[in-house]
């Protein structure tokens, strides 16, 4: 199996998260990459830099320029925090339908494209996010000749929308992979998200598209889990979205039934290629979700996905328990290579 990565993905150091008013240690740490590389047997190739056009196919120019420039502007302004920490957000509740203006101060602009306080921008954030998107782009361009390519993306991406970042995600790597597959000649692409949390960004990007199916199995946001506002079963977009929220404490049987539904829907959609948003944070030991999927459950998840028989780009998303992270990713990828 080909694996795509770059040491530049290690440059992002979130330092901390501001969560429910508290400064807590960051969980999306660079060590995740080392643990995955130790466990996954792959022929590793370097990520190429994605062209700007591949990024603007899924993100606004404004978001891209903001992520590129805001840390430098923050440091130049002399703020005491060593990371960009927004404190005001131009939501509809604030603007009330009025046209918002670009704030003069960088501490005002800091929240222009952010939608939470957890996702801080530091000195290497842009370089790492750009490289992660490049890994997804590189993998998508190689998959037709390889069958399966794994993109070791960090930071993850499925919470990033066209015009915003949050949930520890800055650029939407899975969406970049999907649009690249379309540009490479696929008429229809399926994105199946098996991260423990709903990929609100990916869903939003492809909400009205008829050439990309988005399906996700995830912990029910109605039970109090991120992203809270979206990810419910009645969200269908233009008819090419399927969400399968599952209850907290669900294990393999419920999870695999959800994956089966998504695979059947992708097949009915007529997908010619598959992007897997591969998060492994639905495992019992993971600190970021309440689900109970086992290593065997992840292997069977991979077997179901591999059973579609499609060229597959697996894009790394979440998974935060360092001791089990690598083996869980490896189990899923082995399952894809051993389809049911």
Automatic annotation (TrEMBL):
Q: Which Pfam families match?
A: Hist_deacetyl (PF00850)
The Gene Ontology biological process annotation of the record reads: epigenetic regulation of gene expression
Which InterPro entries would you find in this protein's record?
A: HDACs (IPR000286), His_deacetylse_dom (IPR023801), His_deacetylse_dom_sf (IPR037138), Ureohydrolase_dom_sf (IPR023696)
- Please provide the record's keywords in A-Z order: Hydrolase, Metal-binding, Zinc
Q: What cofactors does the UniProt entry give for this protein?
A: Zn(2+)
Hydrolase as a keyword of this entry, yes or no, is: yes
Record carries keyword Metal-binding: yes
Any idea where the Histone deacetylase domain is?
41-333
Q: Name one GO molecular function term.
A: histone deacetylase activity
Stated family: Belongs to the histone deacetylase family.
What is the recorded name of this protein? Histone deacetylase family protein
């Amino acid at each position: 199996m080909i694996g795509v990565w770059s040491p530049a993905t290690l440059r992002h150091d979130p330092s901390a998260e501001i969560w429910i008013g508290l400064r807590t240690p960051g969980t999306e740490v660079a060590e995740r990459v080392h643990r995955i590389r130790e466990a996954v047997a792959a022929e590793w190739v370097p990520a190429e830099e994605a062209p700007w056009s591949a990024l603007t196919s899924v993100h606004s120019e404004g978001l891209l320029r903001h992520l590129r420039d805001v840390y430098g502007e923050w440091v130049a302004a002399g703020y005491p925090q060593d990371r960009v920490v927004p404190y005001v957000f131009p939501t509809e509740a604030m603007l009330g339908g009025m046209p918002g203006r670009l704030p003069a101060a960088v501490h005002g602009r800091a929240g222009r494209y952010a939608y939470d306080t957890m996702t801080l921008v530091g000195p290497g954030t842009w370089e790492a996010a750009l490289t992660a998107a490049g890994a997804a782009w590189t993998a998508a361009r190689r998959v037709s000749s390889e069958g399966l390519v794994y993109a070791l993306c960090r930071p993850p991406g499925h919470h990033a929308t066209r015009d915003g970042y949050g949930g520890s995600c800055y650029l939407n790597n899975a969406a970049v992979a999907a649009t690249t597959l379309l540009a490479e000649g696929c008429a229809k692409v399926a994105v199946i998200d098996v991260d423990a949390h709903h990929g609100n960004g990916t869903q939003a990007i492809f909400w009205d598209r008829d050439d990309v199916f988005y399906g996700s199995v995830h912990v029910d946001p109605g039970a109090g889990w991120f992203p809270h506002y979206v990810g419910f079963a009645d969200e269908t977009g233009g008819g090419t979205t399927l969400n399968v929220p599952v209850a907290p404490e669900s294990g393999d049987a419920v999870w695999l039934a959800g994956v089966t539904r998504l695979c059947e829907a992708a097949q009915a959609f007529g997908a010619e290629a598959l992007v897997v948003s591969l998060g492994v944070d639905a495992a019992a030991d993971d600190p970021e979700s309440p689900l109970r999927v086992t290593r065997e459950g992840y292997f069977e998840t991979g077997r179901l996905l591999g059973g579609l028989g499609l060229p597959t780009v697996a894009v790394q998303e979440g998974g935060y328990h360092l001791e089990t992270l690598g083996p869980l990713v490896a189990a899923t990828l082995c399952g894809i290579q051993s389809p049911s």
